[in-house]
What we know:
By secondary structure, the chain is an all-alpha fold. It folds into two domains: 42-109, no CATH class; 138-237, no CATH class. The chain is 57% helix and 0% strand. It contains 13 helices and no strands. The protein has helices spanning 2-21, 43-53, 58-66, 70-74, 88-99, 111-122, 140-152, 156-160, 170-184, 188-192, 197-211, 215-218, 223-231. Helix 2 crosses helix 3, helix 6 runs parallel beside helix 7 (140-152) and helix 9 (170-184) crosses helix 11 (197-211).
Amino acid sequence: xxxxxxxxxxxxxxxxxxxxxxxxxxxxxxxxxxxxxxxxxxxxxxxxxxxxxxxxxxxxxxxxxxxxxxxxxxxxxxxxxxxxxxxxxxxxxxxxxxxxxxxxxxxxxxxxxxxxxxxxxxxxxxxxxxxxxxxxxxxxxxxxxxxxxxxxxxxxxxxxxxxxxxxxxxxxxxxxxxxxxxxxxxxxxxxxxxxxxxxxxxxxxxxxxxxxxxxxxxxxxxxxxxxxxxxxxxxxx
Length: 237
């Protein structure tokens, strides 16, 4: 009898010891380790995007973004509460960039900025045309063409930038437009060969900083461009 009681006690003790040494189940995939911030949305709803964002390797991160279901973006907040917050638009752009799919810009409130960035990512000037530009103080559509002109070394894109009608935006844009020509055109004859007079004169003004030849300003007929031309090289003789 005593032997049977001792045997039962030993079996109970053995079971207790096995229970103590058996490790707890590992936390699966994205929930393992420190959880990234989720902007107040439950982690299980945002873990796909948050998991991608927390990756240290950029190639792995891009592959993760590329595979995201857009439903993961829709569950994120629409607007930032603080600077560090991740929003739906951050998520849409990450997916658009990695999938090279500019159509996702149409889902965004700030679609103009998305088209501008995607045009440069894809080297596709047709995306500049999709920029509405109505709420911008500067001509974002024009700046889009100018950035691509410099990247593709195609001064014809400087022409497509167009001039803003609002005088408030004229000075900044004229500087960008002339600089566009200045980067890509290296002789006055090329400028004079452009179709529109206003383009010819913006182009000539763009040559002045590098050539330091203010005589290029003297024959300009557009008063604003002529004033700007002299202003960009005050120390030229």
